[in-house]
Design brief:
Length: 408
């Protein structure tokens, strides 16, 4: 891959994604797939004035070995080192960058029950720290190609050629052209316009229909707002882009108000395994029935992780003709596939999707209808024929999506 293009991508991630400021601390989490690119990102952080950049490496085959051999007791521990690391994150409000290159099938064969129980045991220790920093720090998820991921998408290509092709796909979807930062300024402006129109209606609920069996209604919070593209960190007011790429306009639905069936239109990669050809049925806001042709037990375990895991935390609107979907590629990666079509998310909602959320505590946001959970898992439901109708409090019906694309 051309080094100049990768340099532009690194600059985009650091300057537009994280928007690193002088004196800030940055933590980068990544696999071993693209160490040269990670080094480029580290240097870009320092060029922007970062006082310290820490790289936390991982390797999925080693992670799988840990899951296979460690006991539930040791996996459930919240160690003194982890406690100190979380305390530092709260103190420093460290910028967080995830460079995703995971193998979609990398944890196939691991004990999902043991992993779930360990996460459930650790979550009560982590939650206070996570609540303390929510919306206050800059974070960004971007992607680099790994060989296993590239071979999953392009099984007929040699490994190196598959990685090169996936690099091209990532850069295209991330708008890495002659001036990526300018391209993202324009893109953020366009997403903001969609948000302004939707927020003007103050919809009470959204109704989804598709020929594949999706027939679903979800309630929205009375003081909820749609967001998209860049966001402002609470307190510092620093503007950053959490996802590169991103095509979505999203909000947090009202907990307990969702009825009907949604049919997934893309596989879901969860805990290193693929859940395929699945649907979920909701009653009174809760997922009460699920089905999957592959890994149904994992889907069932996911919605039982805690009391809020079976409720919705996000509804996101993305045109079926989005640039990512137009590639014709199934990425087997949530960052890309969620931005290829409309999606929902089970689990934790977003407090900043409430007007004046900065005046509320986390508990008050929950009372305003924001779901709380240890998970936040996106799954794709957009289709070529999907229609979405917004209904206002006074009963006015507005066509938002028709034939999979924006109608508003």
């Amino acid at each position: 891959m051309d080094k100049k293009r990768l340099q532009k991508y690194a600059e985009l991630i650091v300057k537009c994604g994280l928007n690193v400021q002088k004196g800030q601390e940055v933590i980068i989490r990544c696999d071993l797939d693209q160490p040269d690119f990670v080094a480029t990102c580290v240097e870009e952080c320092y060029k922007c004035g970062a006082e310290r950049v820490k790289v936390e490496w991982s390797y999925m085959p080693v992670t799988k070995i840990h899951y296979d051999y460690r006991t539930l007791e040791t996996m459930s521990e919240f160690t003194a080192v982890e406690k100190a690391e979380w305390e530092r994150k709260v103190e420093k409000l460290s910028c967080m960058l995830w460079l995703d290159s995971d193998d979609p099938d990398g944890l196939q064969g691991t004990d999902s029950e043991k992993i779930a129980k360990a996460n459930q045991a650790r979550f009560p220790f982590i939650k206070p720290y996570r609540d303390a920093i929510e919306n206050k720090y800059q974070w960004c998820i971007a992607a680099v190609p790994g060989k296993a991921w590239a071979n999953k998408i392009y099984p007929d290509l040699p490994a190196d050629a598959a990685v090169e092709k996936l690099w091209e796909d990532i850069l295209l979807c991330s708008r890495v052209d002659d001036d990526p930062i300018k391209a993202w300024e324009i893109h953020n402006e366009n997403l903001a316009k969609h948000c302004a129109v939707l927020n003007g209606y103050k919809f009470e609920k959204l109704e989804y229909k598709s020929a594949n069996g999706t027939d679903f209604t979800v309630g929205l919070n009375p003081d909820g707002i749609f967001l998209g593209g860049g966001e402002y960190a609470l307190g510092s007011n620093i503007y950053y882009n959490p996802n590169i790429p991103s095509e979505e306009v999203f909000t947090t639905p009202r907990r307990g108000v969702a009825e009907g069936k949604v049919v997934a239109t893309k596989p879901l990669s969860y805990q290193g395994k693929l859940i395929e050809n699945f649907w979920i049925r909701f009653e009174n806001g809760k997922a009460v029935e699920v089905y999957a042709e592959k890994n149904q037990e994992l889907l069932e375990k996911m919605i039982s992780m805690d009391e809020g895991a079976a409720y919705l935390g996000e509804v996101a609107l993305i045109a079926y003709s989005s640039p990512i979907n137009n590639t014709g590629i199934l990425f087997y990666n949530t960052l890309f596939d969620e931005n290829a079509s409309c999606h929902l998310a089970l689990g934790r909602g977003f407090n900043n999707c409430l007007e004046n959320y900065e005046n509320y505590t986390v508990e008050e946001c929950e009372k305003h209808g924001v779901n709380s959970s240890m998970i936040h898992v996106d799954f794709m439901i957009g289709s070529k024929d999907m229609s979405i109708v917004g209904v206002t409090k006074d009963g006015k019906r507005v066509s938002i999506f028709k034939n999979g694309n924006w109608a508003i």
